[in-house]
Specification:
Layout: H1 3-29, H2 31-39, H3 43-70, H4 77-93, H5 99-106, H6 114-143, H7 149-171, H8 173-178, H9 193-203, H10 205-233, H11 240-253, H12 265-274, H13 281-311
Helix pairs in contact: 1-13, 2-13, 3-4, 3-6, 3-10, 3-13, 4-5, 4-13, 5-6, 6-7, 6-9, 6-10, 6-11, 10-11, 11-12, 12-13
Length: 322
């Protein structure tokens, strides 16, 4: 089987999985009940959540721009914002949440090499997860009484694993030592593309990482508040501490390339997690779809910008490493 056929089959499988999971969850929640819940939603609170999602794109673009500057890249701020909107489009409508990161690397344009774009995009993504799970750990003492003990311990263990793995990646020396015997073409210690990209990751420095974590704190607080606003718009009364515990888990799970933008997976997780705090299936699915609609709105803005840039011939190619 050639690679193109394999890729098409994988994508088809992801579409089928998305549709099957979504159909199963919707059938259990009840389409009529979901429609009634949506009609009763407070649109003012939802509009505020939508505005926060828009601000979140600019926050993440600023975070990435700071990382690019930390490694000597000179990418205009408006270019970083544009690419983050375009990335939102690909993340929303491709089978994996990493699609937008690839597009950012491929279309970075003048001012950065492919290794700089890829390395900083990875650090950008990881610092977001680090701070998200830091917030989850900080909230667990208050959320512990609201959650089943085994779920609270699982969230805490996952958070610690993310923090430890990220610190190991950023420090660099141990990973280079462990991978030094690998072929140079695939070793982080080598001088091929992977090695150059990993050199960018470690070149960001702790000062650059600290700046990215500060932006990540602001963004993830926005993300949690937006989830809470959607819940309030739907008439749900859920403790804010629950969102601090659950949002990191759902966000991380959506990166698994088994569905289109997490459709079906997200809804199932919301039913599973929020069911632990007495939120019914219909309400949990409505909450999940409401949060997803924020991503769709940002993705549509990115798609319009990408289409406009293509029509005007403004898309750029990635700079080579020379």
């Amino acid at each position: 089987m050639n690679p193109k056929t394999r890729t098409r089959l994988f994508n088809l499988a992801r579409i089928v999985i998305s549709l099957a999971l979504l159909a199963w969850v919707l059938s259990r929640a009840g389409p009529a009940q979901l429609a009634a819940t949506a009609r009763a939603a407070d649109l003012r609170l939802y509009a505020l959540a939508l505005a926060l999602a828009l601000v979140g794109i600019f926050m993440r673009a600023a975070r990435w721009l700071g990382l690019l500057r930390a490694v000597g890249a000179r990418v205009p701020a408006r270019r970083a914002v544009y690419l983050y909107f375009v990335g939102a489009f690909f993340n929303t409508f491709l089978p994996t949440g990493f699609g937008g990161d690839v597009v950012r690397v491929l279309e970075i344009g003048d001012g950065a090499t492919s290794a700089q774009a890829a390395g900083t995009a990875l650090v950008d993504r990881l610092t977001g997860f680090i701070m998200l799970f830091v917030l989850a750990l900080a909230a667990l003492p208050w959320a512990y009484g609201l959650l089943p003990a085994n779920l609270a311990w699982a969230i805490g263990g996952l958070a610690l694993a993310v923090l430890a793995g990220s610190a190991l990646l950023f420090e660099g020396r141990l990973i280079r030592r462990l991978t030094g015997r690998l072929p140079r073409a695939i070793s982080p210690a080598g001088d091929a593309w992977i090695g150059r990209t990993y050199a960018v990751i470690t070149a960001v420095g702790w000062r650059g990482i600290a700046g990215a974590l500060a932006w990540s704190l602001a963004f993830n607080l926005q993300l949690i508040v937006a989830n809470g606003l959607v819940a309030r718009a739907l008439g749900l009364s859920v403790s804010p501490w629950v969102f601090f515990a659950f949002v990191p888990v759902t966000t991380a799970a959506l990166l698994a390339p088994i569905s289109i933008s997490g459709l079906g997976v997200r809804e199932g997780l919301y039913v599973l997690l929020f069911g632990q705090v007495d939120v019914g299936q219909t309400a949990a699915v409505a909450l999940s779809l409401g949060v997803y609609s924020l991503d769709v709105a940002m993705g549509l803005i990115g798609g319009a910008l990408y289409l406009g840039a293509g029509v005007l011939g403004m898309r750029r190619k990635v700079a080579t490493d020379g």
